[in-house]
Design goal:
Blueprint: E1 2-10, E2 16-25, E3 30-34, H1 41-48, E4 56-61, E5 64-65, H2 71-79, E6 81-85, H3 96-101, H4 110-115, H5 120-132, H6 148-161, E7 166-170, H7 178-195, E8 198-202, H8 206-212, E9 215-220, E10 223-229, H9 235-242
Parallel strand pairs: 3-8, 3-9, 6-7, 7-8
Antiparallel strand pairs: 1-2, 1-4, 4-5, 9-10
The structure holds adenosine-5'-triphosphate.
Amino acid sequence: MIELRQVSKEYPNGTKGLNKINLTIGQGEFIAVVGLSGAGKSTLLRSINRLHDITEGDIIINGKSITKSHGKALRMIRRDIGMIFQSFNLVKRSTVLRNVLAGRVGYHSTLRSILGRFPAADVDLAFGALERVGIADKAYIRADQLSGGQQQRVAIARVLAQEAKIILADEPVASLDPLTTKQVMDDLKRINQELGITTIVNLHFIDLAREYATRIIGLRAGEVVFDGPVSDATNERFAAIYGRPIQEDELLDKGNAPAGQKGITA
Ligand SMILES: Nc1ncnc2c1ncn2[C@@H]1O[C@H](COP(=O)(O)OP(=O)(O)OP(=O)(O)O)[C@@H](O)[C@H]1O
């Protein structure tokens, strides 16, 4: 379970990224976070695994405060949280297998990780993860030889090899075309259902959020302005939240390619 209690994040320049957020997210939920550009979606995700330090409140992951943890305790909480980024964040010149094995570094000494000496059990785990996303045949290919969708699958496999209990995906499909977008979202959904991994995905497209999530959280100017089931997250409701009608570039099925064009602000 993830709990955010009165969480605020103010950037050093005074911008409020998050303003008194309260949320409880249960194990195994599949949540889409939506909102206009600048609404605070990335700030929220990066605060949960403490890539950003919050300025007020507390974030509790499975009973332990990540806000107050340091050193080994912080590393242990983070080991359970996998992150997926829009830009894939792979080591491009390394093989797919090495990139996936990077998910194991939290389980070994720094020296062992630097030397790249992973036990056979880790290699088995990495292959299992690659099989789950359908690219085991690419294990020995350099990451930069793969398509965008395949690279994002490597990033998903890395999180699986990490044996993460929570996946935070920050606009994971924003660099992908609509077909690949659906394939990557299918992978995330299947993994969520098969392994019960709590999944929180920031998405730009409202229709995509409705198609995959079971719960939608809407942000505006750092505040939660919608939190409910997909059935309540209608275009009309979001038009009211945004203060204007839903635009075509916020709907994947309006043929947006490549995905992720923005240019609107909260
Ligand atoms: N490093 C930073 N320093 C100052 N302000 C920041 C910083 N990062 C984000 N912000 C501001 O915090 C607010 C929330 O930004 P955030 O990136 O979380 O929004 P977002 O909903 O993820 O937007 P996008 O969809 O464009 O990524 C915005 O006003 C943004 O300008």
